[in-house]
């Protein structure tokens, strides 16, 4: 765990009491969401010198269901966006880009008996350049460290973003044909509507289902497949590949380019040598138009 965050835990224990009570209304615009019930954060405060604390509440059920993976990724995403906009003057009109994200979670955190109602997130922000930040993040449940993350994100002005996206800046929404899903239980999900993978007939390969009717992954209209949907695809592919009982304890994600709505994206999964005998390492790669778009490596408990 980063020393700065350990220090924050020891020196700023009073923060838990300061932000335990939720704000009257945490602006959902700060976390780029349209649905109020998708906002997991409840309050925040500054600790000084680039350090911040955020409180979060995981609801029972809701649009994210009981998926620890989705709730954890959303908590990390929302915490970074909140502090970026509320404290670091990142304009709401700008597009934010996640370049890579590495996070790990304690294996017992997947036990339903340990599912928390309230969490506290400690973050340290360091500038990479004027439009990019490195974030160190720790998540605490009842004072116990349950997850930590390291990630880079940047932002881009609207005009520059339109030029970058070109013909993909305006895309038809919800018009793509969504192929039938694989069986939900094979990818660790309960309902067909949660499944983001379609069969291809090739072992270890699936097609990404770009189902914009899934509110957990597509809260509002966007011009490309969100990174959260890609991480979810990697989770489901790893589950299908390894079988049940192999929850991921470390996830390393790299995003090379946008995944577009106008062409199939193939999801390939292979086993690679693990550095720890207690885990099995799965590498999941997304490919579109013959080019790699993202890669997610997961260390899953044996």
Automatic annotation (TrEMBL):
Pfam families: AfsA. InterPro entries: AfsA-like, AfsA_hotdog_dom, PKS_dehydratase_sf. Residues 30-148, 187-290 form the A-factor biosynthesis hotdog domain. This is A-factor biosynthesis protein. It comes from Streptomyces zaomyceticus.
